[in-house]
Design brief:
The structure is a homodimer of 193-residue chains. With 193 residues, chain A is of the alpha/beta class. Helix content of chain A is 60%, strand content 12%. Chain A has nine helices and five strands; from the N terminus they run βαβααααβαβααβα. In chain A, strands 2-3-1-4-5 form a five-stranded parallel β-sheet, sandwiched between helices. Chains A and B meet through strand 4, strand 5 and helix 9 of A and strand 4, strand 5 and helix 9 of B.
Chain lengths: 193, 193
């Protein structure tokens, strides 16, 4: 079977839930927030700072120059490098599911991966957030746009690839059509193929 | 079930074969070259001309200006309009599989569609062409690049969308991982969902 399943996902599309279900179906570990804690341990960064930095869309050259000065490696880049080491160390342990954090790109050389991109309709995603976070539809849509923008920029900055370009993934799936359970079943089946 | 399954595909990725298998699994009609013949009938264009025009990547403004002059609608645009009418008429008859021809875009309003993008690795595609067309690997790779470029441009010109951008499809699948049969099974299952 494909050893490492990476899941990239639009915000609130159900990617994390699918990841947990796939891990259960295949009886392998699931890593999401665990990566933040491991990166904190390995790098000395505070977990809360890591989480903020992951979700920031301000990886621009000028931003980094202002925050970090001309000659030092930006903190966000140091953080990304630490996350890469953690992800590779986890992947070396054996089959697992890794959600987010450009893992498809980080593991592109020398690892046997099955790369997934999960997306959905605005309607499906809004319903999930409104229910979960007690937001109006307009508020939910605004959160979705912001979070997706940050993820797209983060991915582009570190990988030079286009987030959600199908040719970078083995499977892309619309959860508004598949639902969560069937998507997880299909991924588990393909990963075993 | 989703009424109309549209399949867009990288050249030699197995999309047409998958389309035929899905149609068989669901016992619904499969339309590919049939659309050329129907368009020829409806428009008076020669089928051979239609086929050439579909595969041309010269839908540029300057090209059309040179060929068609300033004031007439370019022939390729007239042809596309005729194909749209044919595709919509076929879709109105009932559930079916339609391969290529921007059908996902043509049917985006008022039709119940399940849209698929099929892609694969260069290796998988080269092997299919070398075997089928008796080409060297370099020749096969060159054909792949040319055909994909034409399809990408054609799609962009008529839809203003990016060919293979996962958010425009309900499923994108890498046949180098899934193979042809499992991809067809998954599509049939999702379309029925």
């Amino acid at each position: 079977m494909a050893k490492i399943i990476t899941i990239s996902r639009q915000y609130a599309s159900g990617g994390s839930e699918i990841g947990r279900k796939v891990a259960k179906l295949l009886d392998i570990p699931y890593y999401d927030r665990e990566i933040i804690d491991a990166t904190a341990k390995e790098s000395g960064f505070d977990p809360a700072y890591i989480e903020r930095a992951e979700q920031s869309s301000t990886n621009s050259f000028l931003y980094n120059l202002a925050i970090n000065g001309m000659y030092s490696q930006p903190l966000t880049d140091q953080l990304f490098a630490a996350e890469c080491r953690v992800i590779k160390a986890l992947a070396e342990k054996g089959p697992c599911v890794i959600v987010g954090r450009c893992a498809d790109y980080v593991l592109k050389d020398g690892f046997d991966t099955f790369n997934v991109f999960v997306h959905s309709t605005d309607k499906f995603r809004c319903e999930r957030i409104c229910e979960h976070d007690n937001l109006t539809e307009d508020e939910a849509l605004s959160v979705i746009r912001q979070k997706d923008k940050a993820r797209r920029r983060h991915y582009k900055y570190y990988t030079e690839r286009v987030w959600g370009d199908s040719v970078n993934y083995d499977l892309c799936i619309n959860t508004a059509v598949s639902g969560i359970d069937l998507a997880a079943e299909i991924i588990a089946k393909l990963a075993k193929n």
